Amino acid sequence: MHVIVLLRMVPDVVEELEIAPEGNALDLDALRMILSESDDHALEQALLLKERHGGRVTVLAPDAPEVDDALFTALAKGADRAIKITGLDASLTARGLGHACRQVLASTPGLMPADLILTGAQAFSDLDAVIAPLLAYHLGLPHVGIVSHVSVNPAAGSVTVLREYAGGVRAEFEVPLPGVIGIQSAEKPPRYVPVAKVRAAMKSQKIETAGVPVMADGGNALIQVTGMLKPEAAGHAEMLEGSPEEVAGRICDILAARGLLQEVR
Amino acid sequence: MGAVTSAADVSCPTSLGDLFQSEEGRKVLTCIQCGVCAGTCPYGDVMDYPPRRIIAMLRAGMLEKVFSSESLLACVACYACMAKCPRGIRLTEVLLPLIKEQTLLRLPELPAELQKALQNTLRYGNPMGESSRKRAAWVKTAGVPVRILAEDPRPADVLWFVECYASYYPRGQACSRATARLFDALGANFAILGNEEKCAGECGRLTWEPGLYETLMDYNMAVFQKYQFREVITSCPHAHNAFKNRYPLLGFNWELDVTMRYFARRLEQLKPRLTRKLGYTVTYHDSCCLGRQNEFYEEPRALLRALPGVKLLEMTHHRINALCCGGGGGGMWLDTYYKSKGYERLSERRAKEAVATGADVLAVSCPYEVSRFEDALKVLGQDKKMIVRDVVELLAEAMEV
Amino acid sequence: MEGGIWVLAEQWRGRLSDVTYELLALGRELADGLGVPLQAVLLGQGVKELAGTLGAADAVLYADHAGLNSSLPEPFAEALAQLATSRKPRAILIPLTNVSAGIGSLLGERLQVPIVNFCKEVLLKDGRMEAQCVLYGGKIEASIVASCEPVIFGILSGGRPAEKGRSAAVPAVEEAAVDLPASPVLFKRFVEPEAGDVDLGAQDALVGVGRGIQSQDNLELAENLAQALGGAVCGSRPVVDQGWLPLARQVGKSGLTVKPKLYVAAGISGAPEHAEGMREAGLIIAINSDPGAPIFNLAHYGVVGDALDLLPALSEAIQARKG
User: Fold this and answer.
1) What is the ipTM of this complex?
2) DSSP 8-class letter at A232
């Protein structure tokens, strides 16, 4: 089976995020980018499906700083083909990307048909939309998002997925293929790939590029960020300081004052 | 047994395929199957394939079975087997890393903590996953000036390679502050790489990940070559290992030492300043890298004996027989895995020995050991009876400002 | 009723979730500020009687269709699109929860109108709606305006107490017809979480552990504290994903919402997905080694430090205090 995985780079929050001088965007120079966590899970799920059912995995990602690393890592993990989408505006939103992907999927040879298109269920930078349902909408394909389990029914030409709701409840759906699935978490945590393998992939494999035929705007003009700030936190916690023993003592005082240290019956 | 110190490993094979092309590799075949390696290994009783069996499997053409086993996850790279091998086979440095590399390629799943540590080291230059931009943050609280070469690139006498735990962990930072004070007291012309510094990578090499190690070596060598200095002094024995054994292959040719020895060699100069009476009974834990691997047994003891009011006691296993804290070879990030297998924690085994001496202080000289032994003492409920201090911390403590 | 503010009532498995009332409270403020009606939109099959609790709105628009029984976003988005096309609301507020996930995105694309996600607040500034959004796991706040209407706002839960959106008033209910295609996706069944040994919802005290606990080993420290407090241990998603705690102990967006008297958050960053599940706890004490962790904005008391040191210290202190 052919699985396409859409990967995206998002700001790495291990580093301090800085606001650009204009005050309504992140300072891109201060930023490091990392693969969006649920996209990493989507890739892992695709690789698991390939291991179980054979076939190939194509990874697709819009151009961004450090994306080459992510694509070569995907190849080293077992993806068969990596395509970088170029010519997109740096400020492209999720909606714009949805349009761009539709064009790239249609115009890049050998990409479609695919049996499954996987992507992360949500990225914490997606201000204007969630991409999985949009992609399905544009492609006219069935979709289920927030999925934590995927199994293939080869005879029926469908996949069975578990989608998450609230309170730990999940629902089982059958999705006819081809379809789009938004992955929340793969069945196993994303695998490790030795650095030597990634370095080998960098030497022996190539990342293809695909330009977008028409400059996709869809969504860019619809919303405008007027300001950005790092929350000072209205209602910040009262911070307790000192050695662990001192802090523990203070907390006991606080709990006692609220009657929370009653003996349990 | 003789010294296990090794000069730059030009004779060392870098892959299993090259094993028999090199002298050290061929030496593996001189094994007499005596089993001293398995007997002295701290986890020898839980390993399916201790070194003796690995070599037997190699001879029988059955290495694939070894690669498919999780056995090597129990190797903490403590050099005990290598130190005791009557044939002088460089097990820990030559054979075991190659086996580990192949094992990692076949492991269906790496233990999560270890995976995270390796990924973090690649991405952020430290296993904790902290921002590289915060690596030199501790300098602000050092109490003495600490020059960062990126800000002030004038030549230095000493390049102090601080390393990860000493930069990011509170206990490590305490030791770094002590080290800085000592350098300052000696009037040394020293500087650090600050945020440009990344893990030396030694734990990658002995921990299954030569590719990670190479990436870090390439990076660090490029940074070294930007600056001028005479000597590299490091707080981390593992980094010392790396610089001594592998970095020369990439051109590392500076003088090299560890902070403990640097200060021990200047004890006469420091002695007049060591005026605070400590009154501790101390037992010293020989770290694997400084002890068995380099035979730096006397220097830390001389240093400790020079501290006013300090009495030195030895544990049952000391010097070449010291018991590893369990942090090497990836062990630092495998505690959950070991627990799941029901293995006793090596740090607890060793901490019990330390407590048995009746000493107040367990003195160490490797950053891993501070957190591992403090943890172990807590678990054993002995943390009020015994504290853990780096030798350098004790030295600074004895020195009145 | 044209030009109003719409709130999508979150109807799932025949019940309305609390977040519906939070959105009604927000919607009421916007509607009053703009001088327009507030309309609750209730979609489902055979759930008309739920409209009775939506009295905070001026009216309820109800559409009944078998396709709205599906727990999937596509039918809901399509139904809303049809209703909105003829009735032209100015804004549509949709909860950002697992249940309603995707509806806003599909609706906005279908109508070719602006969508703004991660809203913790929507304010009126000079008669214009401005959203305050939370990005990057809580590390950045952004102000957003839209270029045209209707605007689809994806609203995070926890912005207002649900009580503010409840009313004894009985609203007028208008029924409307929608035309929905058959869904290609087949619902098979719901999978309930395994009955946990512990009912988190019944606990007075919870100790929540996150990634900062570092390894499964250290859970013991949290267990000890929970025992000392007479409560139980729960965890954020990453901890459950790793298998350190069972699914039944997960607190947050995909897990449980809890309101204990005391919640000690150990090594939890406080990203919205988890915060959603515990923000209404009576007293929140957070321990995290990162002084910038968003949990400190949520907690009443905070400690910057290593949970692995503080948990045992706290257990000991409590045992000593209890005597």
Assistant:
1) 0.89
2) -
User: What are the respective helix, strand and coil percentages of chain B, to the nearest 5?
Assistant: 50, 10, 40
Contact between B131 and A195 using a beta-carbon 8 Å cutoff: no
Residue type, C123: L
On the question of a cis peptide bond just before residue A178, with omega within 30 degrees of 0, the verdict is: yes
Domain that holds residue C262: 200-322
CA distances, A175 to each of A158, A162, B125, C185 (Å): 5, 11, 43, 5
Q: Check B336 against C242: CB less than 8 A apart.
A: no
In a domain, C78, yes or no: yes
Judged by a CB distance cut-off of 8 A, whether residue A145 touches chain C is yes
Cα–Cα separations (whole angstroms), residue C76 to A134, A167, C12, C99: 14, 21, 12, 11
Do residues B322 and B354 touch, judged by C-beta distance below 8 A? no
Closest CA to A137 of A212, A219, A62, A57: A219
Asked if C17 and C114 sit in the same domain, the reply is yes
Which residues of chain B have a Cβ shorter than 8 Å from any chain C Cβ? Answer: 112-113, 170, 335-336, 339-340, 378
Residues C9, C141, single domain; the answer is yes
Q: Is residue C263 assigned to a domain?
A: yes
Could you list the pLDDT tens digit for every one of the 401 residues in chain B? 333 444 455 556 667 777 788 888 889 999 999 999 999 999 999 999 999 999 999 999 999 999 999 999 999 999 999 999 999 999 998 899 889 888 988 888 888 878 888 999 999 999 988 899 999 999 999 999 999 999 999 999 999 999 999 998 888 999 999 999 999 999 999 999 999 999 999 876 666 788 999 999 999 999 999 999 999 999 999 999 999 988 999 999 999 999 999 999 999 999 999 999 999 999 999 999 999 999 999 999 999 999 999 999 999 999 999 999 999 888 888 887 887 788 988 999 999 999 999 999 999 999 989 989 988 887 788 888 999 999 999 999 999 75
Q: Which residue has the tokens 């120079």?
A: A29
What does the alpha-carbon distance between residue B111 and residue A118 come to, in Å, rounded to a whole number? Answer: 26
**C55 in contact with chain A, both atoms CB, cutoff 8 A:** no
> Of B170, B335, B378, which is closest to C215 when you measure between CB atoms?
B335
Q: How many CB pairs under 8 A join B and C?
A: 13
Q: Looking at beta carbons, which residues of chain C come within 8 Å of B335?
A: 215, 217
Number of domains in chain C: 2
Q: Which domains does chain A have, with CATH numbers?
A: 2-211 (3.40.50.620)
Residues of C whose CB is below 8 A from A129: 104-105, 108-109, 115, 117
Contacting residues for B289 by C-beta, under 8 A, at least 6 apart: B79, B237, B238, B240, B241, B328, B366
C43 neighbors C79 (Cβ within 8 angstroms): yes
What are the structure tokens assigned to B189, written together?
């012309």
Cβ contact C31:C2 at 8 Å:
no
Kindly determine whether residue A195 and residue B112, on different chains, have CB atoms separated by under 8 Å.
Answer: no
Instruction: Specify if C141 maps to a domain.
Output: yes
Closest residue in C to B335 (Cα) is C217
Q: Where are the alpha helices (DSSP H) in chain C?
A: 19-34, 73-87, 103-111, 219-229, 237-241, 272-278, 295-298, 307-322
| Domains in chain B: ranges and CATH | 16-106 (no CATH), 112-265 (3.40.50), 270-398 (3.40.50)
Looking at CA atoms only, how far is residue C190 from chain A in angstroms? 4
Query: DSSP secondary-structure letter at B342?
Result: T
Strand duo B147-148 + B190-192: pairing:
parallel
Question: Cβ–Cβ of B339/C217 closer than 8 Å?
Answer: yes
Between A and C, how many residue pairs show a Cβ–Cβ distance under 8 A?
265
Pick from C189, C191, C322: CB nearest A263: C322
Three-state SS across C110-151? HHCCCEEEEEEEEEEECCEEEEEEEEHHHCEEEEEEECCCCE
Q: Where residue C60 sits, what CATH number does that domain have?
A: 3.40.50.620
pTM summary value: 0.87
